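# step 3/5: fold
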Amino acid sequence: MSKKENNHKQLRSKIDEEDVKQYVIDRFKDIKKSKKIKDLVKFQTMNKYMIMVHDQEELKIMGKLVASHKKKELSEIIKEYEMHLKLALKSNPTVKKHINVLIHIFGYFLKNLNQYEKEKCFEMLKEFREEKTELGEILAEMNPIIFRFDKTYLANQTYFLLYSTLQHELSYNLLNIKISKI
C-alpha cells in the first residue's frame, strides 16, 4: 500500500458512522435551543442527503413535519422531528442507499454534462457498487462540478462535509466544534 493510500485509510478510519450520527444529532440540539422554524428549515435543507442515505421514508415524514409549521406548534414539531431523526439515523447507510443519493445529486447537473462527463459519472457509480472506489473519492470528483454549475445548495450538504475525501480531516475536527451558524 502506498503512503498516500495509507494516509487516506487513516483519515477514513477517523470518521465512522457513529461519529456522523453524533454530528447530526449535536447540530439538531442547537436547533432545539434556538426554537426558530427558520433554523429547523435550514437544518432540514442541509441534512437532506445525510438523512436520505439513512432512511428515505423518514426523510419524507420529516419534510412534511417542517412544512406543517403553520398548522402545529413549533415545540410539537421539534419533538416529533427529533423522534423521526433518531429513527432515521438508526438505519445504517448501504452501498445501494449511497448510490440512490448519488443519483439524486447527479440529477442536479447531469443534463449540463457532456457525454464523456456523463459516462464518467456512471462509471464512478459502477466502481462504487463494485467497491473499487470509495464514496469520498466520488464526492471529491463532484465538488468542482457543483461549483461549475453553481449548485452550491449541494456544497452545503452535510453529506459532502462528512463523506468527501478532501474534507475528512476538516470534518473530523468539526465533530468536536460547535458551529454557530447552520
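# step 4/5: annotate
Residues 16-90 form one domain.
# step 5/5: archive (pending)
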